[in-house]
Amino acid sequence: MGKFTIGKVPLLLAAGLGLAAAAASADTLQDVAKTRGLSAQDLLAAAKTYVPTGKRDDFVAFSSGGQSGQVIVYGIPSMRILKYIGVFTPEPWQGYGFDEESKKVLAGGKIDGKDITWGDTHHPAMSETNGKYDGQFLFINDKANPRIAVIDLRDFETKQIVVNPIFKSEHGGAFVTENTDYIIEAAQYAAPLENKKFYPLEEFNDKYRGGVTYWKFDRKEGRIKPNESFSIELPPYAQDLSDAGKGPSDGWSFTNSFCAERYVGGIEKGRPPYEAGCSAKDTDYLHVINWRKAAELVKQGKAKKINGHNVIMMETAIKEGILFLVPENKSPHGADVTPDGKNIIVSGKLDTHATVFSFDKIMAAIKAGKFESKDPYGIPVIAMADAMDRQVQLGLGPLHTQFDSKPCIAYTSLYVDSQVAKWNYCNGQVLDKISVQYNIGHLMTMEGDSTDPKGHYLVALNKLAIDRFNPVGPLHPQNHQLIDISGDKMQLLYDMPIPLGEPHYVVAISADKLKPGVRYKVGTDSRTDKPHPGAVRAGEEKTVRKGNKLEVFGTLIRSHITPETIEAEVGDEITINLTNLERAEDETHGFTVSTFNTHASVEPGKTISVKFKADKEGVYPYYCTEFCSALHLEMMGYLLVKPKGWKAVKTSLAKGSYSEADYKAELKKVADTQAVIDSVVGYITSVNFKDFPDVVAMVEDATDQLGKMKDAKAKHEAAAAKKDWEQANLWAEQVFQYQVKAADLGLRAKTYLEQHGAHKVAK
Length: 763
Ligand code: K7E
Ligand code: CUA
Description:
Helix content is 21%, strand content 35%. The protein is of the alpha+beta class and 763 residues long. Among the domains are: 164-393, Methylamine Dehydrogenase, Chain H; 524-642, Cupredoxins -  blue copper proteins (Immunoglobulin-like, Sandwich), CATH 2.60.40.420; 660-755. The strands form twelve sheets. A six-stranded mixed β-sheet has the order 10-11-12-13-18-17. Strands 37, 38, 39, 41 and 44 form a five-stranded mixed β-sheet that branches. A hairpin with a 5-residue loop joins strand 23 and strand 24 (380-381). The protein binds sulfanyl-(tricuprio-$l^{4}-sulfanyl)copper and dinuclear copper ion.
């Protein structure tokens, strides 16, 4: 107390004298509003978004990072950024693309043997169980280099990247089926399906193709199974967004398209440009696909292998009755299935309407064989009038639609109008509109594309920010605007500049559904979730040489890297495996070696490896890059790369001058420390520590450390018996080192138990 003073009067005393209110807080809300020029509406918005220190957000959003190839994680309603997840692009802080484990993940995204170290991410998708977000996995696509990535939400790390085997670009991914059996990825710009095959544009109609891929997802493994995945060949109608059916429409998927004209531009040759030719007709096509039956057909061997991948050809799809087309207003964009799975809402960018298609009506037409025509490839076309419930005039440039927790309520982004329209898709009423800044692309409501939307908030993902923020040069940040949708009227709450990429879509999940871990099982390769072959426990550290291959098996624990010296020769191939032995939450260590372009983030329990060729002689410090403790700067060592054939000049190493008295002092230190440990152990075992897995992990670690004492103790006693005081002292000191680590863990466990309300147990 007395730390905070007003003049010379301690704060507590001041409070007692009734001085505190005036002195400690000169401001009232009105004062602040007045000085900062805030309206009552601003104050209300601030109160709705402000999350005080120590408190957490209700929802967690996963945003596409656009061209950054990453995922941005932020909280709602505070809009505080929590993390960038490296996905298609190296991310140094996380060591992503700098340690060997994550390099393997990125290597999964190589195309034609070449690294592709960026991505154009558009659509994140949350894994679902019965159409509801389950908080287990996140998927995201790369439009430019057709790929899908899998992120595990236990640790928010990218685990897998798969390359689409038949497309050259894609856009209608990632969208998951109701139980995440498949991840849908539709092509965008038509191209020959065979890899590295050239056909001239004159053969566009015959040789260029679109398609939809259904990636099989193995829940238990948490990985896509390329061998069990398949695609359906589609006409070269630039396929666009997709959505999976749910509830009654589960088993079906919907993908729209633009440029069903199959127009080929070439303004250089005097032809009208793409934009004119691709929007000449009034309609494009919604593709309606029975993916469940398609999966059966693949099992029956009715797929063709293209580039080693199962493809159901259009001919088969038509014959088997799994592929249909429905005209949709030209240049549509979003295809969004309603939470009840009964309708599909499609908006035309060049039209003012949203069309509410009816799954029942589509099924009835298919059942009755009622088609208005066939497209040039023989795919049956259902008349628009037979497939829809209604069209609703919303405004200019409707794009994407999301849903509310209230039945029949939808929100559609209006790109040209820079507005969000709130409307009722059951009766066609437009209920409200709000202006956004500016030119909105996607919008997103809480769990708003699941069967169970949560309402509360909407985020407008605007394409342009223009004048909203402090200028930072010609390249502006993106503007995500938070809108309160809990009342009848939408209310704009907050502008959030996103300083990374052009995000396209975001998904947000109730925060309580996410259950990420705080540590790994000791020795885990986080990218495979399996034990890391390079992991060692404390005291088992070693360096192994085989020919010119030098492999280090080391550990990290505050404030120490083991080993502290690595001796190599020019030309050695060096692998350094490091295990973080910490069990305490947030005790991450980083690791780098000077000038070898290597970095790792080693969270508690994780094992990483970095690999490089020591192709130059010299002295290279290595160190921990996370400020992990008071002695963080001392968490260092040297890589010594000696020239070939270098011989140590014989020197006499300085002998330590240890005495018996030193040894006695050392023993006293050990005994004192043991007393601390005993008291901590006494406390831990007197309470129900076994009910706390975090503590059990720490106790395990501490026991491990103490177990190593026996050997060191035998050594110092043997040396003392021989009056070798140097050996006796150093081994006794080693006992102390083990004790310190154990005591540290014990004290953390004790604190944890006290903070988490452990109770006494009968002995
Ligand atoms: Cu509209 Cu790729 Cu979903 Cu951009 S997309 S906005
Ligand atoms: Cu470990 Cu700094």
